[in-house]
Amino acid sequence: MESKNMLIALVVLTVLVNFVNYIDKDESKTIQKIDVLKKRLADEKLLLQSKTTQGVIDNRKFFFDSKEDNNRLLGAFQNEINAMALKSGFKITNTTWGEPTTNETLKLTTIPLKLNATSTPHYFAQFLKAIQSMDKIVKVDTLTMSKSRNEMSYQLYLYGYKRVASDQN
To answer: CA 127, CA 51: separation in Å to the nearest integer?
Structure first.
């Protein structure tokens, strides 16, 4: 009986020694992989920042006309959004213009638009899909939803952007 227990103890000890050794090797490999992934992520962020500042931001088709007055842009932005909402079945009940703000560092003016709407989730999804397909950059932000009898009520902020004209300060 004692030799049987001794044999089991030796087998368990052998397995533990071998298993722990493999865990150490696996952990070191995992740590190396994490370090490689961190470096790759840092490189990709750096690349993305350089592409953003050189490629996307300089590409004027993604932004509203920089020479256009902010109030006219807000009106045009609202008309474009209303047309998308009508086409997608999303019922906008109220639209409020926000105050455009300029970020001098990025040389961008933010054009805010607040929407209140009622619709079904299906039509809301179609509306968001239409916004994504716009040729301008539009950020959907601060979405609040509440349920009424047959529909959902939505409140959301949309932000369009225009480049700051080089002759403006």
So the answer is: 29
Residue 19, pLDDT score: 60
Q: Which residue has the tokens 């039509």?
A: 123
Q: What is the mean pLDDT of the chain?
A: 77
Q: What residue numbers bound the domain in which 66 lies?
A: 62-163
The answer on pLDDT for 79 being more than 50 is yes
Same domain? 97 vs 47: no
Cα distances (Å, whole numbers) of residue 7 to 14, 16, 17, 21? 10, 14, 15, 21
Q: What is the CATH number of the domain that holds 147?
A: 3.30.70.60
Query: Nearest-CA neighbor of 110 among 73, 67, 78, 85?
Result: 73
Domain identity same for 135 and 75: yes
The answer to pTM > 0.70 is no
